[in-house]
Structures are given as C-alpha cells and as structure tokens.
Design goal:
The chain is α+β, with helices and mostly antiparallel strands and about 150 residues long. About 35% of the residues lie in helices and about 35% in strands.
Length: about 150
C-alpha cells in the first residue's frame, strides 16, 4: 500500500465543525476502499496566497492516508463535486510522519513565544527600552574625496 499526504482547502464561510465533518467523510471513504487514515490535523482559518472564488481566507486540513490508488481517485472525484472544497492536493510520500506537521509546530512555537512575551511584559505596548543616540559610536573616519 502507498502512503499519501492529503491537504484540503475549504471555503471560509463554513464552520470548523463542518470541516471536521468533511474530514470524517474522507476517513469513511478511505475505510470503504480498504485504506487507513493516520493522523489528521486542522490547521485553522489561514490567509490564501491569492483570492480563490473571491475568498481571501480558507480552512486548511491535513489527512495522512495509507491505501491503494483507488482511494485517492475516489477522494479527488468527490472533492471536485463538493462546492465547499476550494482546492486539494495529494502527495505520495515514502513514509508517514506521526509528529506534528511544520505548520502546527510553528503555530505552537508562535503561541508559546507570544505567551512568554505577555508574561514578561515585553510586548509592543510601549515597554521597549529607550535607544541610545548615535553619539556613542565615536568619530567616523573621513573619506578621501580628491581622487
């Protein structure tokens, strides 16, 4: 059986619960075709690189799939019919990773650093240290302009 990473981009005006229902449908389709779903991740409502169907944001979801090629053909066929799906991408990979994807890892890291900044009082709320003037650098060497 082959391993696939399947990313689905859905309309921004549907709820996260509807996105979860779509992921559950994907899981059912994979199970019907004798495949297995590994991890699933909801990446949230994110900005698009360019507008798609007049939308500037979309819900992103990642599904790791282990199964035959017919599973992917059926999934992609159903995504083309579904009006809530803006884009989808399926990539065949050598192995499926069980650790969080870089998108989730970065989101967690950003959340931790923001919390730390807020706890330390180092946000952008005017608590920045005063910058010293430029007079602490010493004299500049002159340039030879008579070339």
């Amino acid at each position: 059986m082959a391993f696939y990473e399947h990313v689905v981009v859905t309309r921004p005006d549907i709820s996260p619960q509807q996105v979860e229902a779509l992921v559950e449908d994907i899981t059912k389709i994979v199970a019907e075709k004798n495949g297995k779903v590994g991890k699933t991740e909801y990446w949230g409502l994110r900005n698009l690189a360019y507008p798609i169907r007049k939308s500037r944001k979309a819900h992103y979801s990642l599904v790791n799939i282990e199964g035959p090629g017919e599973v992917i053909h059926e999934l992609e066929r159903r995504h083309r019919i579904n009006e809530d799906v803006l884009r989808f991408l399926t990539v065949r990979v050598e192995t499926l990773s069980e650790e969080p994807s870089p998108v989730i890892a970065r989101k967690d890291r950003d959340d931790r650093s923001k919390r730390r900044r807020d706890e330390e009082g180092g946000g952008y709320g005017g608590d920045r240290p005063e910058r010293s003037g430029r007079d602490d650098r010493g004299p500049r060497g002159g340039r030879d302009r008579d070339r």
